[in-house]
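Quiz preparation item.
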């Protein structure tokens, strides 16, 4: 693929034939060539009035015009200010509620709901039948090119206002409660298995993650004396039939 130019790569990404990250031997790995192609497209682009692309008053790189969809694509892009940027793949059966934004290099698989005020950042990979609730922020990871982007695997449920950044991976069937922040600087405690996840370790399959707090460390003596706490996330259980019932509303929204 390294012999292809950026236009060919972006075309293939829009078709879902090339991805910014791929799962190899059970581990997500960045597609460096694809990410380099995106950066090359930005470098070659010049700012223009997007009016010629039916977006009057907006200015962006001439080669980054938002995508247009037809009923044949099977994508439901509800009117009201949403946009899918050039080079992003959106599968049939995806629903995008306004306003939402899907950035270049992102991959959104079939049956996924992207709710209002949700962001799917550059190169983020979203699996099948995922629910990104209102206000969810999925960060983009374009640089460094070797770093895998944020990954949300199949059947995950991301609650309202959750923030997932810095290449964090959420594995199949996990439930992230509203307001949870996941980054490499936020520790995750598995209260079921009584362990702390390693930095960058994926959120396990079917984990139910809620916001939590932890005492400050000894380096912050005054804060510790004041009883202050810092943000963390906690796995409080793993999905079972009962917890699945609470997510059945999702099926009625499709």
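Solution:
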């Amino acid at each position: 693929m390294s012999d292809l130019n950026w236009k060919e790569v972006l075309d293939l990404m829009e078709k879902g034939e090339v991805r910014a990250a791929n799962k190899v031997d059970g581990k997500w790995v960045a597609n460096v060539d694809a990410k380099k192609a995106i950066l090359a497209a930005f470098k070659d682009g010049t700012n223009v009035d997007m009016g010629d692309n039916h977006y009057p008053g907006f200015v962006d790189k001439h080669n980054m015009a938002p995508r247009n969809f037809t009923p044949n694509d099977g994508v439901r892009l509800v009117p009201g200010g949403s946009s899918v940027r050039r080079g992003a793949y959106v599968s049939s059966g995806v629903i995008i509620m306004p306003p939402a934004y899907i950035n270049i290099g992102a991959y959104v698989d079939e049956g996924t709901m992207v709710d209002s005020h949700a962001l799917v950042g550059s190169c983020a990979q979203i699996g099948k039948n995922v629910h990104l609730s209102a206000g969810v922020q999925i960060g983009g990871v374009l640089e460094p090119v070797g770093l895998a982007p944020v990954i949300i695997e199949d059947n995950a449920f991301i609650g309202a206002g959750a923030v997932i950044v810095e290449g964090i991976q959420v594995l199949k069937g996990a439930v992230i409660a509203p307001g949870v922040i996941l980054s490499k600087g936020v520790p995750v405690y598995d209260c079921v298995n009584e362990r702390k996840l390693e930095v960058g370790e994926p959120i396990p399959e079917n984990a139910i993650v809620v916001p939590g707090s932890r005492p400050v460390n000894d380096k912050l003596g005054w804060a510790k004396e004041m009883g202050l706490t810092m943000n963390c996330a906690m796995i409080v259980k793993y999905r079972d039939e009962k917890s699945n019932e609470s997510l059945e509303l999702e099926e009625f929204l499709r």
